[in-house]
Specification:
Number of domains: 1
CATH class: Alpha Beta
Largest sheet: 5 strands, parallel
Distance between the termini: 23 Å
CATH topology: Rossmann fold
Number of helices: 5
Shape: globular
Strand order of the largest sheet: 2-1-3-4-5
Structural class: alpha/beta
Helix content: 40-55%
Number of strands: 5
Strand content: 15-25%
Length: 128
């Protein structure tokens, strides 16, 4: 079986880089970016199984990114992540079809399990 392809999007480079490294060591094919704009460019040129997306980022925030993803790739699984919990953001994320809404800090084992659950539902179905 091919490794799960995961994109990590968070404006905190000190969060993204170690997480990408740890996921790759666990057999994932993980990549990371620090802006919403970079994420959308990378998604357009690559096939991902799941995106872990920070809600609050400068520029294009996570909710804007998931809206763009839904327009072009409605079946791509997106997991929202935040350090600043908001009932409204969670509700909006659910309305936009996020698979999970997680609060930082997140446990790597829990995250791996969520990735597998999310990818089990739509493996390889990024395109509409």
């Amino acid at each position: 079986m091919e490794p799960l392809r995961v994109l990590i999007v968070d404006d905190e480079e000190e969060f993204v880089n170690p997480l990408v490294e740890r996921l790759n060591l666990r057999g994932f094919e993980a990549r990371g970016v620090t802006t919403g704009e970079e994420a959308l460019r990378l998604i357009d040129g690559n096939q991902f199984d799941v995106v872990l997306l920070d809600v609050k980022m400068p520029g294009l925030g996570g909710l804007d990114v998931i809206r763009s993803i839904r327009e072009k790739y409605p079946r791509l699984q997106v997991i929202l992540l935040t350090g600043h919990t908001s009932v409204q953001d969670e509700r909006t994320g659910q309305e936009l079809g996020c698979f999970e809404y997680l609060i930082k800090p997140v446990n790597i084992d829990q995250l791996v399990e969520i990735f597998h659950r999310a990818c089990g539902q739509n493996r390889g179905n990024q395109t509409s």
